[in-house]
Structure formats: C-alpha cells, structure tokens
Design brief:
Elements lengths: L1 E2 L5 H13 L5 H21 L4 E8 L4 E8 L10 H6 L5 H8 L2 E7 L3 E9 L1
Antiparallel strand pairs: 1-2, 2-3, 3-5, 4-5
Helix pairs in contact: 1-2, 2-4
C-alpha cells in the first residue's frame, strides 16, 4: 500500500492491516499489530522523506505477521533515551515496538531508502 502524507494515512494503514487480519487472528494479536503499525507509519510520515509504503504478510496457523514501512530517508530511527523522553512529549514509539514485537529492525534498501519492520508471532 502506498502511503501519502495526509492526516488520514495512519488510520488508512490500520484499516488495511485490519482487513488483512480479519477474524483470522486473535483480538490481542490484531490490537498489537494495529498499534505497532500506527507507530511505524507515524514515524515514516513525520521523520521520513519522499514516498512511503506499507507491506504486510500474515500466515496462520500459527499467527505470524511481518509489517514493513518503507520510506526514502536514509536516516535510521533511534529509540529515544530516558533523558530526551523526560524533556519532550512523545518519543516512546520505538520502545513500544521493541517491547511488543517478537522482532523488529531496519533494513537498508538500494538508493538510500530504508524499511523499518516488525514481526509478531513465532
């Protein structure tokens, strides 16, 4: 899914993912997936450059989801330190992703772009 930089992009990304998972995953799995997707899409739109894209693949059973959010910025995401979190509002997104996801990371893509991704499940 191509992500524009409109105010509704995070909701659109969640809706798309919800349709992918529909009734094939547990309520808690869907809740976590939508939360983490919101965090990565928000980061890409706020901090990234150029076009953004959402990619997701889901298998069941067992429940396993991989979500990639791709943007054209070469800047890597950095989890906020405790000192920075106390000094400003926000900055908890990547810490939340690290805490909830089974795995997460960043892959460099040719041309300077990157994919920030997470996996849920086994």
């Amino acid at each position: 899914m191509s992500l524009d930089r409109s105010p509704s992009v995070v909701r659109d990304a969640r809706d798309t993912l919800a349709r992918l998972l529909e009734e094939r995953a547990s309520v808690s799995f869907v809740r976590d997936a939508l939360l983490l997707t919101s965090e990565l899409v928000t980061n890409a739109v706020v901090h990234g450059n150029g076009s953004c894209e959402l990619r997701a693949s889901f298998t069941c059973p067992p429940e396993h989801l991989r979500v990639d959010v791709i943007d054209e910025s070469p800047d890597l995401p950095v989890p906020t330190t405790e000192a920075l979190r106390r000094a400003r509002l926000g900055g908890l997104g990547l810490l939340l992703v690290a805490d909830v996801a089974s795995h997460w990371g960043v892959d460099h893509i040719a041309g300077g772009a990157k994919s920030v991704w997470f996996e849920l499940g086994s």
